Amino acid sequence: MEKLKLLIPEDLLQTVRSSSVDDLLSSSSSLLRLFLGLPQFHQAVSDLGDPDLGCCRKNEETSLDLKRRGNLCFRSRHFNDALRFYSKALRVAPPHAIDGDKSLLASLFLNRANALHNLGLLEESLRDCHRALRIDPYYAKAWYRRGKLNTVLGNYKDASRDITVSMSLESSSVGKKQLQNELKAIPDYQNKQTSEHSEHHPNSYAGVDHLPSLQSEVKLRCVSTKEKGRGMMSECDIEQASVIHVEEPISVVISKSYRETHCHFCLNELPADSVPCPSCSLPVYCSESCQIQSGGALSTKVMDKHHVYQNLPDDVVEHIEGVTSADIYYSEETECIQEHQHECRGANWPAVLPSEAVLAGRVIMKLINQGETAMDLSNLQEILELTHSYSEMSPEIKLELHLLSIVLIWCLNKSCCPDLSVCEASVTQTIILLSQIKVNSIAVVRMKSSGDSLKGIASGNVSEKESIQSLEQLRVGQALYKTASLFNHSCKPNIHLYFLSRGLIMRTTEFVPMGCPLELSYGPEVGNWDCKDRVRFLKEDYFFHCRCRGCSQINISDLVINGYCCVSANCTGVVLDSNVATCESEKLKHFLAAPKSLNHHFQVSEKVYADVGEVASSLLNKPRGSLEIEPEICLICGSRRNVEDSYAEVNKAWNDLRRVGELMNSGRGNVFVLSDCLRSIAVLRTSLHMYNKDIANAEDKVAQACYLAGDLKGARKHCEASIKILKKLYEEEHVVIGNEMVKLATIQLASADSSGARDTTKTLSQIFSKFYGSHAERLFSYL
Ligand SMILES: C[S@@+](CC[C@H](N)C(=O)[O-])C[C@H]1O[C@@H](n2cnc3c(N)ncnc32)[C@H](O)[C@@H]1O
Q1: Is the distance from CB of 563 to CB of 615 less than 8 angstroms?
Q2: Is 483 near ligand 1, meaning CB less than 6 Å away?
Q3: CA atoms within 13 A on the CB side of 291
Q4: Residue 175, burial from CB neighbour count under 10 angstroms (0-12, 13-18, 19+)
Q5: 195, 293, 353, 489: which could form a disulfide with 522 (CB 3.0–4.6 Å)?
């Protein structure tokens, strides 16, 4: 993109940067004309759209080389490395390539099955055997391997069938004899309990979850307000933790950093036997079902060797023919949108362009394939009906969107859709679509434990040398949902959003009375950042000035989160720096300007009143009209603190803490290091307000350091101190508190405090059920 920018003359740059929606047609037309006439443009983008130059093509040589390396690792019993090489080889293996007298793909699946078998991953290995057999149903070794696996898994009927078929395909009499013995060794399935899978589907790995149905009593309505545009509100009283909305996306794209670890369709974590895209080397899927829904079936020519095996018994032929049927892979109930199909022509652009552009490409191609949009995309906006905020975007973003749209339309046209017009209309519509994606797309997240030993919590078996377990949020993808885009943002949301596969679920986190707006957080929340940081983020990333209840009411969190403590001993008052003081003053002025009936300041609940009173009682007593908050002055007793000096001390203490943290994490921690930690935290406490978030973070770090040093009592004390502060900053039962409690439970278990751990886990389950309802168990099964 930088190269392209250099090609644009200054006056056109100005036009583009200052464009509004009304003159988009003219700015995109001028830019498009310029680029199409410049050989440098064609040079710069040629390798993006030309399949012959793409890096995403299959490559037989590379695949064979990776297979050889896998075999070497296998022979030296490095099964994990072998697995890795085989998976890589599968990704680049052309579907019809042959290695010796075997299909390359089939032999790779079987080799991987062997590696998986040796790693004890039996179901995965079984699925790979089945894949090998689907490609080459006369593959004796694959029947044999599958027979062995079925024996271990107790699927005796299947095992007997598999070994019988492999025996029929075996040419040597010694081999036949050996297999005969193997067959005899299989327990008599008629008399034994056979597994439920006797007619099992080897591809039982199900990546895609089904969405729950809505409670019928929940009624929502879309309303419009001057401040926020359209938004959703309740048309009836809604209980806490009710599911209020479920939706499948218009389209999804995986985040670049999770391309190797998560399924490109359902976005769940990949199993060890991931399945590659049949036509390019980019996506990997957790199952054939996801592969087919995303891009199409693995179109391998089944190797026809029937003439070689003409004398096979009828029942063996029946088994061989049965193995190639594809229906077990794909449930027809699922809508097949094949959103990757247009990308897998081997061209580079889907790998190189930003995720937003790939998502835009998917939306465009989906609408074209469904016959909904014209080839110049002129009706795209009408179809999607999403807000875009183009005029609020910065000049640099406007320029980026222009460039990206031209490149995307050009790539789509060259690589997969020659009928798509490369004209100012399609470019303009794509600019709007990209703006809509910026404003409306939602990050698809997964919660993940930070280490394996969260499973250890369940068994009560936590190693002291591992770091404390915690939950991490992974932003695995980005998706566009039509109705979910109508929900406005609040920094104090009353609904919570989570995902099952690609499906989105919204649940109320509190009782919502009839007529109340239903709002979720786009990221920033009270308790996470202070008001000025939230406002800045929403302006920069979502292009609006936040008018939510969290940003218009006074709350303790915004005052203390970055606040300093009072210099007078025993005073609990907070001292603000000038940035926070200005932002909070603005907020108070806003209250005063509002009509009395709407004046939230005087309507604050008793709890908020008491909380604010604890740190800033002067704000509650101020006469109307004089609500300028003075920086560096305690909001209770009026004592002055030099914030600049305190800032320097805090910085130094944090640098020390970070250094100490690194030492601890690299295993070089000891009691002296730990006492350094405690000194730093004491420094923080002399400068920062007792509810400042930095103290919560520092307490958390110290808890981790104590844990690593084996001081479990200390770890618990500091973890509890962190939770105490978080409870002031967020609501008592916020999911963030739940995440912190996972750490507390780990410490309690490690210190054999099972009753404490039980209590913590009980609270934790309560919190998680409030946010995830009955899905809490499914999403946090290890808890
Ligand atoms: C995902 S859309 C929500 C639906 C949108 N209001 C509509 O009319 O389509 C996001 C846009 O809604 C508006 N919005 C959402 N939350 C807001 C808030 N708290 N304060 C002001 N505007 C808000 C902003 O214009 C923002 O860009």
Answers
A1: yes
A2: no
A3: 24
A4: middle
A5: 489
Global model pTM greater than 0.80: yes
pLDDT at site 325: 55
* Residues 488 and 231 sit within 8 Å (Cβ to Cβ): yes
**Residue 105 parent element (H or E):** helix 104-118
Least confident of 213-227, 572-586, 588-602: 588-602
Distance 225 CA to ligand 1 centre (A): 10
Helix/strand/coil for 352? helix
Q: Is 710 left (phi over 0), alpha (psi -120 to 50) or beta?
A: left
Q: For all residues of the chain together, what is the average pLDDT?
A: 86
Within 8 A by CB and 6+ apart from 382, the residues are none
* Whether residue 469 has its Cβ less than 6 Å from ligand 1: no
Q: Is residue 228 in contact with ligand 1, taking CB distance under 6 Å? A: yes
**Who's near 84: CB < 8 A, 6+ residues apart?**
70
Tens digits of per-residue pLDDT, 399-446?
Answer: 999 999 999 999 999 888 899 999 999 999 999 999 999 999 999 999
Residue to probe by mutation, ligand 1, list 223, 226, 387, most atoms within 8 Å of CB: 387
Nearest to 228 by CA among 439, 442, 488: 488
- Cβ of residue 439 lying under 6 Å from some atom of ligand 1: yes
| 17 Cβ inside 6 Å of ligand 1 | no
- Residue to mutate, 223, 224, 228, ligand 1, most ligand atoms under 8 Å from C-beta: 228
DSSP H or E segment with residue 445: strand 442-449
* Of 587, 568, 599, 593, residue with least CA distance to 629: 587
Helix (H) or strand (E) holding 724: helix 712-729
Q: What is the pLDDT of residues 236-253, one digit of tens each?
A: 999 999 999 999 999 999
pLDDT band for position 324 (50/70/90)? Answer: low
Backbone angles phi, psi at 503, to 5 degrees: -80, 145
Distance 524 CA to ligand 1 centre (A): 14
Q: Kindly state if the Cβ of 542 falls inside 6 Å of ligand 1.
A: yes
| 600 Cα: distance to centroid of ligand 1 (angstroms) | 21
228 Cα: distance to centroid of ligand 1 (angstroms): 5
Q: Assess whether the C-beta atom of 535 lies below 6 angstroms from ligand 1.
A: no
DSSP secondary structure of 224-273: EETTTEEEEEESS-B-TT-EEEEE--SEEEE-GGGTTTB-TTT-PBPPTT
H-type alpha helices, 153-232: 156-169, 173-185
ipTM summary value: 0.99
CA distance linking residue 777 with residue 783, whole number of Å? 8
Question: What secondary structure does DSSP assign to 585-642, as a single string?
Answer: HHHHHHHHHS-GGG-GGGG--HHHHHHHHHHHHHHHHPPTT--PPPTTB-TTT--B--
> From ligand 1's centre to the CA of 547, what distance in Å?
9
Q: Are 421 and 372 in contact, with CB atoms under 8 Å apart?
A: no
Q: How far is the CA of 246 from the centre of ligand 1 (A)?
A: 20
Give pairs for 187-192: CB < 8 Å, separation 24+: 187/156, 188/156, 189/156, 189/157, 189/159, 189/160, 192/154, 192/156
Distance 485 CA to ligand 1 centre (A): 9
Angle formed at CA 296 by CA 292 and CA 299, multiple of 5 degrees: 115
